């Protein structure tokens, strides 16, 4: 499964693996909403992703915006594959989020 959610008492972790595209967009959206609604820190692990299409990037951007609005921490794991890091930077993700700095 390319999108998985793991939760514990303190945080939620969504792991993206392989190509994340329109075929798994509904699943990604549902898991992002579940994690955001928990109010816990959300960590997106993207190092195993090989491709994010525009739908996936839009969903991650919307999650980032919602996390900022609600005050819930959201972090991207590092290192991100360069193609994915570049696409996410263009979508407005901060460099620090991608590098863990």
Q: Care to describe what's here?
A:
With 101 residues, this protein is of the alpha/beta class. It has a single domain (3-99), classed as Transcription Regulator spoIIAA (2-Layer Sandwich). Helices cover 45% and strands 30% of the residues. The chain is built from four helices and four strands; from the N terminus they run E-E-H-E-H-E-H-H. It is globular, with a radius of gyration of 12 Å.
Quick structural overview:
The protein has 101 residues and is an alpha/beta fold.
Name its key features.
4 strands, alpha/beta, Transcription Regulator spoIIAA, single chain, 101 residues
User: End-to-end distance, in Å?
Assistant: 29 Å
H-E string: EEHEHEHH
Number of domains: 1
By DSSP, the count of extended strands is 4
Query: CATH superfamily, called what?
Result: STAS domain
Overall pLDDT level = 89
Strand order of the largest sheet: 1-2-3-4
Fraction of residues in H or I helices: 40-55%
CATH topology: Transcription Regulator spoIIAA
Largest β sheet strand count, sense and barrel closure: 4 strands, mixed
Assign the structural class, choosing from mainly alpha, mainly beta, alpha/beta, alpha+beta, or little secondary structure. Answer: alpha/beta
């Amino acid at each position: 499964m390319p999108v998985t959610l793991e939760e514990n008492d303190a945080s939620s972790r969504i792991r993206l693996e392989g190509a994340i595209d329109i075929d798994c967009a509904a699943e990604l959206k549902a898991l992002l909403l579940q994690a955001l609604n928990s109010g816990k820190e959300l960590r997106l692990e993207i190092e195993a992703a090989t491709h994010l299409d525009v739908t996936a990037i839009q969903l991650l951007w919307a999650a980032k915006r919602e996390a900022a609005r609600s005050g819930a921490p959201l972090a991207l794991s590092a290192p991100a594959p360069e193609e994915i890091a570049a696409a996410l930077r263009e979508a407005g993700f901060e460099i620090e989020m991608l590098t863990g700095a």
